[in-house]
Each structure stands twice: as structure tokens, then as C-alpha cells.
Design brief:
Oligomer: heterodimer
Order of helices and strands of chain A: HHEHEEHEEHHH
Strand content of chain B: 15-25%
CATH topology of the largest domain in chain A: Alpha-Beta Plaits
CATH superfamily of the largest domain in chain B: Dimethylsulfoxide Reductase, domain 2
CATH architecture of the largest domain in chain B: 3-Layer(aba) Sandwich
Number of domains of chain A: 2
Largest sheet of chain B: 7 strands, mixed
Number of helices of chain B: 31
Shape of chain A: elongated
Helix content of chain A: 25-40%
Radius of gyration of chain A: 28 Å
Strand order of the largest sheet of chain B: 14-13-26-25-24-15-16
CATH class of the largest domain in chain B: Alpha Beta
CATH architecture of the largest domain in chain A: 2-Layer Sandwich
Number of domains of chain B: 5
Structural class of chain B: alpha/beta
Strand content of chain A: 5-15%
Largest interface: A-B, 27 and 23 residues
Number of helices of chain A: 7
Distance between the termini of chain A: 98 Å
CATH class of the largest domain in chain A: Alpha Beta
Largest sheet of chain A: 3 strands, antiparallel
Chain lengths: 195, 889
């Protein structure tokens, strides 16, 4: 070590240079706008692409979008989705999900299920506050998922648009895929098993 | 030597037999030519145009499914031209396909989906609106979604060519072609499920499992159907321990992928909510839930106490022939060693024993000397009392194939009229049909033998070898007059002569014997008479010829071969055979019990008189099968110990002191032996329901508690032991190797054996009133099996109940007119034993003077029946009764 370097080191030690150096950062931050949010008094603005709680959506006319195809279940990497599908008792041959469960404690929020959905019935919302005293309430059933869907419908739509799964409202109506509905002949009595 | 041709497919050289289609040859070298309308079972139709391939020196693309391979052919399946063709064919198909794959049950295993992924561009040039068919209700079990149809017509062709039912037809033209049934009401057919299996897309699906699953969720288990003796291989598909569907792959098992309604739609029995899930024990007169330990210990204690007090012969054992070979083997070992009695019987006693006895007596085999393949390639087939398309539908398919595709001559002696109906009727295919009353089978068979003798059609080698036998039989039939035979059968002597001529002309002849003979008085004698017919015509002993008694229950044959009968030891060898007894005693390290043993009816009699104190009943329901007049209920009630191993709380189980829950075929491993003697593996598809256990495990546990442990690790260990006793048993190959008739036995039969009972076998017997003579309100009630059920077991299958939920009193329209009855009328049927009220169904196929009632719903009808027991084989007969019919008020 040279004499100059040694002198500098001693001088810095005497003047507490490291402390001043560190305090520089602290003083600099006194003039910044605070970064810390006072959560939950303050809420953050969340981008449209945010992957929050899953929701089931309805069409504008109130029909359930979900056709119970189980593709979300197949796509789910953490196996947290369970769909039980059946024939719609009011519409012969129409498939629908009679039960739908998402175990949100297992969910990894990857959004694969939304991508897999052929009818854009699933969407992710900006809801991320799940804290609860009872873990059982985190097993979302069909009713709960539709409640979330109704409450956060705008989030859901924005999510789908942000992820290029749906066009804006007008266009999505045009491009939306409807499964052809078989029409019962008016002359025919309703089938035995449905009456 | 088969003529072969050499061709090149995509650079692969291959030699195939002449006549092989290019698509099949391509499959052999591993080149898959896409196709919809082609199926190996069906005649080529070439309507979907998907299998176009390029063949050198042919100007245009050819359909691989209809072009036979020729010498030197050079086929290319993956050129630009071919791919373009595939693209445009698919573009046309997809122009109308709704692409509703996410909601389609076929999605994930759909040919159209696979080919679309492989061959199409993602866009279509068609912008027109897709066709939408108005939906009509189709049927309770089979559903159509015509929007998805690709119009390959496989379903229509299968229904016609394979099943011979012709229930489906295409209607409309071009893209508007729709698959329809013929009537305005819902589909009414055999419900074989063939159309569901063969549809390449999701146009025809099963309603029973609709929307319950996606193909990738399913776990599969290859096992054997339990509903009849045919032993069809089925694949049970399950999702999370739930039975979802049954299918059978093309080429699988003895059925080659064909199934009947019972196999395809009858699988829900195993998970029926009424299944017993816990042991039940009788306390204060009530059956209450108990633990396995309590139940088994109580049984063991009581059994030991009774054995000490009354000796081993106060015990009886009865097992159902729906159990696996392992269960049957262990059961008879349990009865013979642990209990120490020969009082063993199984439900093979109801009929199968008759057939086996006759075969053993005449030719020394206990099995068929033919296989299903021999039925298909037979030139003449004689069916006696089988109604084969309903009782053994897959054997029926083999007969249909022989007749329709290979032009075999079919002779039928059945209690059936040829009539076109919604389900197939074997009499329609017969070249010579004798429609007889159930007591007319014997006169008709004797008529055939008389024709053989009188027309000098007796085989010359036989006449030289056994002149005494031919002489005796000839004399016996000459004593019968043609008039008496004509009166008993209602057919002319000329028709017998014609039928016999066409039968003797052929080189390969098979006689199928059904329940009408086997489950009738002197069934064994008539089966022996049929063997006489085959001996006289000279067919006996030739390859591909033989008499084949059809088993009703899936393991009837196994029950006999495992020795679950008092007269047989495993093998089967006769219970009095000293060498077999010594061999068995050595293997079991224990002396076998001596004494004659009691048969089913003798055990019931013993229970009534008090000489029998305890019974073990496994999977059999004598109180439910035998008519009340047999007094089974009372007899079983007077027992000191009745232990039942059952799936459900049956009539018999309700009387038991202890009911132990057994598991069904879907939950256990083992083997079944089908009617042709083929041993096939049964594999579990779902986990055990509740606390139920396989039958062998229960018996094994009991044997330990009773101080004589018969312990096995699994069913395979029992099977190993069976194979050590019966060398080569169950080689589990693709097809059975039938035994040859034992020449020594045949010769001793021809020398002296024939004479015992000859006089009884060659008499016409007493006749009941013949058809046309009836003036009063009486009919012969015959309790029969129907296509949609099997015993009482299948009446808990929800799918089958949707097709047939209750019994109906079927009679000929002529009888209906005579008695003033119309379809749907309520009738009161009565005789001196009792009465019942039921609904009338008029069917052309029922002969005049006869009324049929399905045995599956015969709780009421059984009251009218009386039991008679065959003195020789101890087979109980209770299938028919004379009844008075009147319209119910």
C-alpha cells in the first residue's frame, strides 16, 4: 500500500466518511416523493394485465359463458380447478358446468386456464386480497366465482383485452364464437328424461 | 397356400395376401392413411374420399380403402397432390362441422380433430352459414348430434352388415344427409352401442355418460363382461373411481370389439347405491351392521359348533357361476377340506351340467370341440332351443356372419316364429326353420334323425365301425311315426328330409344347444341325442364340427371345471375317479371327503327336513331364482346357520344370519372361462366399494378362523395352484385350442354306452296341447331370457332399465285376438298355484299358444311355476307352466 492511499484511508476514518456517504442516500430520499404506500389506506393502481382472483363471466344477456368443457382443468398446472359438467336441464344437449371449483390456495395465478378457455368464460380480476380467518372460504365455488365475475366484470373484460383474448366490446360480439344450438322441433313433446 | 402380391408403399416393400386393400397393406408397414368411412369390419364404401392415395400408372388419385393391392403397385401417400386432396376433402367436411369440440364427448379422441390438425390450413374459403339440423329426441341411451356428422355412414353399415338390425338409415341428400331411425317415435333397436363405438366423430354418443368426462381423464382396464357365457372382452373406463363407459376395441377378445346392450350399457351395476358395503349380522331378528372381525368370528364359531354337533355333512355350499375361477376353486376347496363335505353345488346346476354330462358321456370332453371361429366358418349350423341373438348375442353375431357373409346353411329349431321386429330374430336367417313349442325340441331332433336314417344318409364308416349302434338307433327312430312327429312339431316330414339333406351335404357342421334344451327336463339326454345326430351324419370328430352347449352365465363352464359341483373334482374329473382323488389328496395334503354329496335341490330338501343345518351361499340367490312352490324360503329359514356373500341384499341374503359384502367383477382380479372354454383375465377397474372384499379373500379368512388355513397372497396364487392341478389350464392366448373328442370314450359309447336310456331318449314324450287346438283361455307360459337383461343382476343397471324396466306378457297377435287382448291391456294370469297381473305385449315372433315372460322380472310370475327335478342330473326345471289368461278388470 502506498503512502498516499494510507493517508487517505486514515483521513476518511477520522472524518467518518462512510457514515456521511451513507447519509447522503438518506438525505436524498428526504426530498423524494415517498415510495411506500400506506396500504390499506392507500391503494395502488393495478395494470390491466394483472393476474388476480379468477372470475367466471356472463354474457351481456346474463347467460353463463362457461360450457363446462374442462379445458381449464386440463390446462391448470397446479390442479386447483375442478369442473363437473352435465346436460343443461332446460336446454337439451347443451353442456354446462353444474359445479365449478377453484382452490385459490393452490392457484399459482399463471393464467393458463384463461388462455385455455374457448369461450372466454374465465378471466382474472384485480382482486388480490384474500385474507380470511377460515381457509375453507378460499375454495371458490361456482356461485362465488360468478359473484366475483359480476362485481369485477370490467376488470375481467380489460384483462381479456389486455391479453389479446378478446377484442373490445363491439368487436368481441361480432367475433364471439357461439356453439350452434340444436333447436327442438316445436311439434315434438319434450323428451322423457327431461320432463 | 395363399396367393400373395408384392407392392411398394411410400418406399416400403411389402408382401400381402391377394385381395388385401391398399389401406390395410399400408397399415402393416406403419403408414396411416387418413380415413372416415373405412372400417375393417365393413365392406368398403369409399364415400368419404379421405383416403385418396397416388398410385403409379393410374391417372387419378385412388381411394386406398377400396383398391385391392396388385402386383408391382407403387403407392405414395404423402405427395403434394395427395396432401392437397386431403386438404380439400377436409375443407368440405369442415364447411359444415360446427367445431364444438370443447363440448363434444369425442373431443380428444376424434378422427376429424386429429386429421384436421395434421392436414388442414387453419382458414377456410367457405363463408356460408353452416347447416343446423333441428334436434329430435333420439333415444334414452344413444344420442345424436347430426351437426357434427361427416356422413361416412359407418353406423348405418355396421347396423346392417354386422348386427343385421337395420335400425339406422341416412335420409336427405348431399350435405343435408342425416342419420335417422325409421319411426316417428324414439329409436327402438338392440342398443348394442355399435354405432356409438364406430362413429369417427361425435355425431353419435352414449347418453349414459354424456358430458361426464373428457377422454384424457379416463383410466382403462381390460376385463371380461359378466352378463353371458360369451365372455366378451371389454374395456372399462373410469374417472376417479367412477365407472364412466365401456368399450371394446376392434380385434379385442373373442368378440372382436362387438358388444351387446348388456355389455355396453349395463356397467352401472357395480356402483349401484344399494351395494352392500359392510358385513351384516342378525341380532334380535334384524340384520345390523357389524365389523368384519365380529361377523367372521361369529360364523367360524357357529360353524365349528355345528360341525362338532352334526358332522360335516350337515353343511351345504352353493356358489354362483358369476364368480371367478379362483373364487370357485377356493370355494370347493373350502367346502371339501375346511368343512369336509361333498355338498357343493353352483348355478351351473341350472343347465350347464346337462350339457357337460352329455359331452363327457359321448365324447369324453367337458368343453366344446369347436371355437367361435369354427362357427363362423361352418357350412351348416343347427340351432336348437337357443334364441341365440338374445341369450348369447355375440355367439349370435358369429352365426349371423356365417350365414350372411359365408352363406352357411342355417337350421333352427326354436320356440320362435320368423318375424321382422326391432331386434334381430335368428329364425329370419334360417334356411330351414322348425317353429316348435318348448316341449317340441325333442320330437324335432328325432325327426331329423329319422330323416337321416330313412333317407340312407347314415355315414358309411360309422355303419361299418359300429353296426350295433346304428342298428339300435335306426330301430328306435323307425318306431316313431312321421304322423306323431308332425303332430308334435307342426312341421311336415318333407321339411325334415329337406333340412337333413342340406345338413348332411356339408363338410363342416356345428350344432349349438341353448337354454331351451339345457334348462329343460332331460336336457342331458337331448344333448346326447344331438351328438347322435352328428355321429350318424359322420360329422363327429371332423375338424370344425361339434356340439356346443351355450352357457348362460359367464363362468358356468368354469364352475364345472373348477369342481364346484358334487359330481366333479377340479379338472373336471369325476368325484369317484380314484386316480384323480389320489392326485388331489396329494396336492392338498389331505384326504377328500367321501360320500355322494347333495345337489342344489337335495340341499334345499335337506334343509327342510332338518338334515342340513348350515349353508354357505356365495353370489347365488336360490330363494329368488326358484319359484315359491319349491319352498326354498322356508327351507333356508329353518337353517341354524346361513352365510351369504353377496353384492346386494337379495331374497336369500335377507334370510341369512350373516351377510358378507363381496365385490363385483369390476373390482376384482381373476379369470373367467367362457362358453367355448377360453380362459380370460378379469382385471379390476375400480377400487373396492366400501368394505367389500373378493369372495376368495373372505373364504380364506374364514378358513383361518376355522382352524384350517387356506392362505393366498392374491388371486394369481390361486390360479397358479389351479394350473398345478389342471396342467395347461387357461393359456390366456388370443384363442382357445379346443380339445379333440376322446376316441376311447367315443368307441365305448358306440359299443355299449349308447344303450342306457336309449328308449327314453328316442320317445316323443307326452304332449301338451298343440297350437291351434286351444279353444279355452289357456296358454303355455314360458319364462325366458331377453336381450336386455341377464338374470336379476342386470336389473340394477340403470342403462338397461331405461330400455326394459319391467316384464310384459308377450303373446302372438292371433292369441291376442282369440283372447280379446290388445297391446297394453292388463291381464290376469293364473293357474292352480297362484296368479299375477301384468301388461300384454303382442309380438309376431311368439308362436301361437305360447306366452313369454322375461325371467328378470319374474318375482310375480314365479308364483305360477312348479319345480321338477331331473332324476339323472338333478337339474331343477321351472321355466314353464300352463296358465289361464283373462283380461283384468
Amino acid at each position: 500500500m502506498s503512502v498516499g492511499a494510507l493517508t487517505k484511508k486514515i483521513l476518511q476514518a477520522m472524518l467518518f466518511h462512510e457514515i456521511w456517504d451513507a447519509m447522503k442516500v438518506t438525505f436524498k430520499h428526504m426530498f423524494h416523493r415517498p415510495i411506500t404506500f400506506q396500504y390499506p389506506r392507500e391503494q395502488r393502481t393495478i395494470p390491466d394485465t394483472h393476474r388476480g382472483a379468477l372470475a367466471l363471466l356472463r354474457y351481456d344477456d346474463g347467460r353463463e359463458r362457461c360450457v363446462g368443457c374442462d379445458l381449464c382443468e386440463a390446462a391448470c398446472p397446479s390442479r386447483c380447478i375442478k369442473v363437473v359438467s352435465a346436460e343443461d336441464p332446460s336446454l337439451p344437449l347443451q353442456r354446462y358446468a353444474s359445479e365449478f371449483y377453484i382452490d385459490i390456495t393452490k392457484c399459482v395465478f399463471c393464467g393458463y386456464c384463461v388462455e385455455a378457455c374457448p369461450v372466454n368464460a374465465l378471466a382474472m380480476t384485480k382482486l388480490y386480497e384474500f385474507s380470511t380467518h377460515d381457509k375453507r372460504t378460499l375454495l371458490f365455488d361456482k356461485t362465488r366465482l360468478y359473484q366475483i365475475g359480476e362485481r369485477y366484470i370490467e376488470d375481467g373484460k380489460k384483462y381479456l383485452i389486455a391479453h389479446h383474448q378478446e377484442k373490445d366490446d363491439q368487436m368481441s360480439r361480432e367475433y364471439r364464437y357461439y356453439f350452434p344450438q340444436s333447436v327442438l322441433k316445436a311439434t315434438q313433446a319434450p323428451p322423457k328424461h327431461l320432463s | 397356400m395363399v396367393e400373395t402380391v408384392k407392392l411398394t408403399i411410400d418406399g416400403h416393400h411389402i408382401t400381402v395376401p391377394k385381395g388385401t386393400l391398399v389401406i390395410e397393406a399400408a397399415r402393416q408397414v406403419g403408414v396411416m392413411v387418413p380415413h372416415f368411412c373405412y372400417h375393417p369390419k365393413l365392406k368398403p364404401d369409399a364415400n368419404c374420399r379421405m383416403c385418396l392415395v397416388e398410385i403409379e400408372k393410374m391417372p387419378k388419385l385412388q381411394t386406398a380403402c377400396s383398391t385391392p393391392a396388385a402386383e408391382g403397385m407403387v403407392v405414395r401417400t404423402a405427395t403434394t397432390v395427395v396432401n392437397e386432396a386431403h386438404k380439400s376433402v377436409l375443407e368440405f367436411i369442415l364447411a359444415n362441422h360446427p367445431l364444438d369440440c370443447p363440448v363434444c364427448d369425442q373431443g380428444g379422441r376424434c378422427d376429424l380433430q386429429d386429421f384436421s390438425h395434421e392436414y388442414t390450413p387453419t382458414t377456410s374459403r367457405f363463408i356460408e352459414v353452416k347447416r343446423v339440423f333441428p334436434k329430435e329426441y333420439f333415444s334414452p341411451l344413444i344420442e345424436t348430434q347430426m351437426n357434427r356428422c361427416v356422413q361416412c355412414l359407418r353406423c348405418v353399415r355396421y347396423c346392417d352388415e354386422v348386427m343385421d338390425v337395420k335400425a339406422l338409415a341416412p335420409s336427405g341428400r348431399g350435405t343435408m344427409t342425416e342419420i335417422k331411425h325409421f319411426t316417428h317415435h324414439e329409436l327402438d333397436c338392440e342398443f348394442c352401442g355399435g354405432c356409438v363405438q364406430i362413429c369417427p366423430v361425435g355425431a353419435i354418443t352414449s347418453r349414459l355418460s354424456m358430458y361426464e368426462f373428457r377422454p384424457w381423464m379416463l383410466k382403462r382396464a381390460d376385463t371380461v363382461c359378466t352378463y353371458c357365457g360369451d365372455g366378451c372382452q371389454i374395456t372399462i373406463q373410469t374417472k376417479e373411481n367412477q365407472l364412466i363407459e365401456v368399450m371394446s376395441a376392434q380385434g379385442a377378445g373373442r368378440n372382436n370389439g362387438d358388444l351387446c346392450a348388456r355389455g355396453f350399457f349395463g356397467y352401472h351395476v357395480s356402483t349401484h347405491p344399494d351395494r352392500l358395503q359392510h358385513p351384516l349380522i342378525r341380532r334380535n331378528g334384524e340384520l345390523v351392521q357389524a365389523t368384519w372381525e365380529d361377523a367372521l368370528e361369529w360364523v367360524a364359531e357357529t360353524a365349528i359348533r355345528l360341525k362338532l354337533a352334526h358332522g360335516p355333512n350337515a353343511f351345504g355350499g352353493l356358489i354362483g357361476a358369476r364368480c371367478t375361477n379362483e373364487d370357485l376353486y377356493l370355494f370347493q376347496k373350502f367346502m371339501r377340506l375346511v368343512v369336509g363335505t361333498n355338498n357343493i353345488d353352483s348355478s351351473a346346476r341350472y343347465g350347464q351340467i346337462n350339457g357337460v354330462r352329455a359331452l363327457r358321456r359321448v365324447q369324453g370332453t367337458s368343453r366344446w370341440t369347436v371355437t367361435f371361429d369354427d362357427i363362423v366358418s361352418a357350412e351348416a349350423l343347427l340351432l336348437v332351443g337357443t334364441n341365440v341373438t338374445e341369450t348369447n348375442p355375440i355367439t349370435g353375431l358369429k352365426v349371423k356372419e356365417a350365414v350372411k357373409k359365408r352363406q352357411a346353411t342355417l337350421l333352427t329349431i326354436e320356440a320362435l316364429e320368423p318375424a321382422v321386429g326391432t331386434i334381430s330374430n335368428i329364425a329370419n336367417l334360417a334356411a330351414h326353420h322348425f317353429s316348435v313349442q318348448p316341449d317340441g325340441f325333442k320330437p324335432a331332433v328325432l325327426g331329423l334323425i329319422k330323416a337321416v336314417v330313412e333317407e340312407n344318409l347314415v355315414s358309411q364308416p360309422l355303419a361299418q365301425k359300429a353296426p350295433g349302434y346304428v342298428q339300435a338307433v335306426s330301430e328306435a327312430v323307425r318306431r316313431l311315426s312321421w304322423q306323431a312327429i308332425e303332430r308334435a312339431t307342426g312341421s311336415s316330414s318333407q321339411s325334415f328330409i329337406d333340412a337333413t339333406r342340406s345338413f348332411t351335404r356339408t363338410a363342416r357342421a356345428v350344432i349349438l344347444v341353448g337354454q331351451g334344451v339345457l334348462r329343460a327336463p332331460d336336457g342331458s339326454g337331448l344333448t346326447a341325442t344331438l351328438l347322435d345326430l352328428l355321429l350318424l351324419t359322420g360329422h363327429h370328430g371332423l375338424p370344425g364340427c361339434g356340439v356346443a352347449p351355450l352357457a348362460e352365465e359367464n363362468n358356468d363352464q368354469g364352475a364345472v371345471e373348477m369342481g364346484a359341483a358334487l359330481e366333479y373334482l377340479p379338472g373336471p374329473s369325476d368325484a369317484n375317479d380314484q386316480a384323480a382323488r389320489a392326485r388331489l389328496a396329494q396336492a392338498w395334503k389331505e384326504e377328500l371327503p367321501k360320500g355322494p354329496g347333495k345337489s342344489l335341490m337335495e340341499m334345499i330338501e335337506g334343509a327342510r327336513t332338518g338334515s342340513l343345518k348350515a349353508m354357505f351361499i356365495v353370489g347365488e340367490n336360490p330363494a329368488g331364482s326358484l319359484p315359491p312352490s319349491a319352498g326354498t324360503m322356508e327351507a333356508l329359514q329353518s337353517l341354524d346357520l346361513l352365510v351369504c356373500q353377496e353384492l346386494f341384499l337379495t331374497e336369500t341374503a335377507r334370510l341369512a344370519h350373516v351377510v358378507l359384502p363381496a365385490c363385483s367383477y369390476a373390482e376384482k382380479d381373476g379369470t373367467f372361462t367362457n362358453t367355448e372354454g377360453h380362459v380370460q383375465s378379469v382385471r379390476h377397474a375400480i377400487e373396492l366399494i366400501g368394505e367389500s372384499r373378493p369372495d376368495w379373500e373372505i373364504l380364506s379368512a374364514l378358513s383361518v378362523l376355522m382352524g384350517y388355513p387356506l392362505e393366498y397372497g392374491d388371486a394369481k396364487e390361486i390360479f397358479k395352484e389351479i394350473r398345478s392341478l389342471i396342467p395347461g389350464y387357461g393359456l390366456l392366448g388370443p384363442a382357445p385350442t379346443p380339445p379333440r373328442p376322446d376316441q376311447a370314450v367315443v368307441e365305448s359309447y358306440l359299443k355299449t354306452g349308447y344303450s342306457s336310456g336309449l328308449a327314453e331318449r328316442y320317445t316323443l314324450g307326452e304332449r301338451r296341447a298343440a297350437s291351434g287346438e286351444r279353444k279355452d283361455f289357456s296358454l303355455t307360459l314360458l319364462v325366458t331370457q331377453t336381450l336386455f337383461h341377464s338374470g336379476k343382476f342386470s336389473t340394477r343397471a340403470k342403462g338397461l332399465l331405461q330400455v326394459q324396466a319391467e316384464g310384459a306378457f308377450s303373446l302372438n297377435p292371433a292369441d291376442g285376438t282369440r283372447l280379446g287382448l290388445a297391446e297394453g291391456d292388463r291381464v290376469r294370469v293364473s293357474n292352480d298355484l297362484g296368479e299375477m297381473t301384468t301388461t300384454v305385449k303382442l309380438q309376431d315372433r311368439v308362436p301361437v299358444g305360447l306366452a313369454l315372460f322375461p325371467e328378470h322380472f319374474d318375482q310375480e310370475a314365479r308364483r305360477l311355476l312348479r319345480v321338477s327335478t331331473d332324476p339323472a342330473t338333478q337339474v331343477p326345471y321351472y321355466k314353464s307352466a300352463s296358465v289361464k289368461v283373462e283380461k283384468a278388470k
